[in-house]
Structure formats: structure tokens, C-alpha cells
């Protein structure tokens, strides 16, 4: 470049500007590095830089963890095949009872596995879940860790089921197996020893405690997000309630074929357990209203969760009075339940797509029925989620038709619908985090915008190494290529200011 117009413009316009001449940021950075190096790390600059720098979201995964995930999933597949074959030919075992006792652990394992896919999707698409959940950037579980946890628990659960099926051959009480499994899951969760993802477990326990104490704690994003997950895992709570009642009432743990137990005897407690997740979110919304003073969306959101109370109450009354009427259509509580269920389904679905996901935005532009900004590259994901959420929200309709006509039992219907509800929440998670990332719709951050570009680990790692070395970069002059005729026309840059216009020709 022979002309000096560009260099002159830079000197006259850029190098005299305040943002260029002001060195306060650099001074603060140097002072911080100096303080941490000398006062906290006793002169060890390498340790100081490691403490100061946050690892990138796209950090490399451990090959050892990858191997363990593959090993556990492979073992789980083999064990599931063995369970299927054993259950097919085992005639003396109460399979129906096994379904009920093992359904809760299975849903937890499914949830953890799908959460791993959620984390992978967020990370690869640039949704900064670490910032949104206020996690420690240096110590947080990745999708590999979640897959590993799901794999371990899945293998243990499968072994417990096989122990249940072959309890007679092993000469052990059949019902000691599901109880031992639940106790093991609980001990792994509350274990105070710093193993098995100690930081993540106690982060989760802190959030659960804050949820249990709602509305007496300030509500953060992780608090209400986990409470929303619990609303999709309400079957896990109901199965835990069933398990407790079962082991209190049933004294014979050996005979799997002769169980005389009916959970409907615990009618009131079951109804209360069914309302716990909705109550937590209801209380959190009230607390958010108290803290912000905003009627909308917090009181409106509380109203959404209150519809669950009416649905549960109406359903309980319908079951309690069904023997008093020859036809369910003669029962006034049937219509009460239908009205409550329809209102709840419409309310929750509308809130999902409009408020939680921010879709059907008037300024959607080229993304019809979506919103102005989207993160995921395929718009088909969004349209699928819109339809899928509606279908699963309305599954109570075919569920009632099938059970009321005796085609399938109520528990079998619940066993089919519950995993689908966990899947619905899995899809919901993608778009709820995306909306929070783009628009700060929950107002949990001080600023609206954060970077959405996925971070390439190889580039960021190279930059970190270069920053640690004083003379790590050497610029070598490369062989000059002769410009083509096409490049002669394209290499003109027009620099425009308020008063002057400069034409900078790069080829002269």
C-alpha cells in the first residue's frame, strides 16, 4: 500500500480519541494481575493466571469420561435386553407391581440423560447456560458428566430389576430390591464425601432447599427452572408417596404375586403430594411479585399454576364419587374436571409458547410465527416444539377415554404418559433457555445482551497460551501475491466521516 491516506486518517481520527488514549482498563488489568500474583499466589504468575482466567464454554471433554459413558450405556443396553427376556418368561413375578415401584427411578434416569442432551445443545449453539444458571465456570457438570451419571444409575437400576425378577432363585426378599435402590439413590445424593460430583450435588440440594422454603427465599433463575422441572416429574413424587405407603402397609416382602394394597386409601396425602410442585411455583411467583411489584407476569403466572390445584381437586372428587353414578356423564364433578382441565391446558400451553419461549412475536420478520432473533439454525425445531407441546399437553383426553373404557389401566396410562411429559420438558428447556439468553425475559440479569457465538476451544486455548508467553508470536512477511483484475476492483474501501470522504485504493 503506497498511499498513506489510511494511516493519516487513523492518526488524525482514531489515535487521538479518548477510547484509544485512555489506559484505565489496561491499568486495572495489570494491577489485578499484579495483586493476585504477589499477594495471593506468592509470585507464581502461572497459578495467578489460572485463577483469573475463566475456561471457555467449548472446553475439551475427557476421553476417560467418554469411555465410561460408552461402557455404562453398553452395559445398560445388555441389561435391558436381559430384563425384557426375563420378564417375558417369568410367570411368578408381579410385573405390574415392579412397574409401579421402578417407574420413579426410571423417570429420573430419563430426565438426567435428556438434560445431558440439553446441555450439549445449549453449549454447541452458544446459549450461555453457565451464566444463566450462575454456575461456577471452572466447576460445573458437562453433558458428558450427565450422561455418565445417567449411565451409572441406569445400570444400578437394571441390576435391581433383575434382582427383583430372580428373587426366588437368589433367596432374597423381592421387595428389598426397589427399596434398596431408592435408598442408594438418596445416599448418593446427600453423601457429604467429596466424590461423585460433590459441588454439583450440593448446588442442587441448595436449590431444592430454597424451593422447599418458597416463598421465603429470593427466587433466582435456577430456583424456578428446577421447580418447573419438578412439575414434569410429579409422577416421581407420587411414586415415592406410593413406595412409602406400600412399605408401611405391606409386611410381606417375599411374595410378589400376593400384594393386597391400595394407595387410594391414602387419598388426602396423595392429593397433597400431587400439588407440591405447582404450589412451589405458585409461591415463587408470589415472591417475585412481592420483590418486583409487577402484577404481570408474576401474578398471571401464579394464576397459571393455581389451575393445577383445581384440576387435582376435581379429579379427586370425580374418583371419589364415581361409584355413586351409573354413568360418569351423570356425575357433575366430571364436567367440573373437564372445564378445569381445558382451562389449565389452554393457559399453560399459551404461556409456554408466548411467554416462556417468546414465540408468535409480532416482529418475527422472516421467521413466521416465531420471533425476531433465534439461535437454533433450523426453524423446523421451533414448529415441531409448538405442535409437540400442544399434543402432550392434551394427552389427558385420550388417556381418560382409554382408561374409562377399560382398554388400559390407569397406571399403565400413567406409565406411558409420564416419559412423554419428561420429553416435553426436555424440548421446553431448549427454547426457555434460548429466550432467556436472547431477551432476558425473566429479568435475572443486569443487561439484556450476552454473546451467542459458540466458542471454539482450539482458538481460545491458543490465545491463552499466547497471552502467557512474552515472545510467543512472530510475524513473518509472506510472499506477495500479484492482484488479479477482479481484486483490483474489489480492493477499494470507502471511508466516510461527517465532513470528509476518503477513497483508499489498496492496489496503487
From TrEMBL:
Q: How does it sit in the membrane?
A: Multi-pass membrane protein
Q: Where in the cell is it found?
A: Membrane
Question: What are this entry's molecular-function GO terms?
Answer: inositol hexakisphosphate binding
User: Does the record carry Transferase as a key word?
Assistant: no
Q: GO biological process: any one? A: cellular response to phosphate starvation
Per its UniProt record, what InterPro entries does this chain match?
A: EXS_C (IPR004342)
Q: Does Flavoprotein count among this protein's keywords?
A: no
- Pfam entry (one): EXS
Q: Provide the transmembrane region boundaries.
A: 69-89, 101-122, 146-166, 172-190, 202-220, 232-250, 333-351
Q: Which residues form the EXS domain?
A: 261-465
| Gene Ontology, cellular component aspect | Golgi apparatus; plasma membrane
> Mind telling me which PROSITE patterns this protein's record contains?
EXS
The entry's keywords: Membrane, Receptor, Transmembrane, Transmembrane helix
Name the UniProt record assigns to this protein: Xenotropic and polytropic retrovirus receptor 1
Give the organism, scientific name: Schizaphis graminum (Green bug aphid)
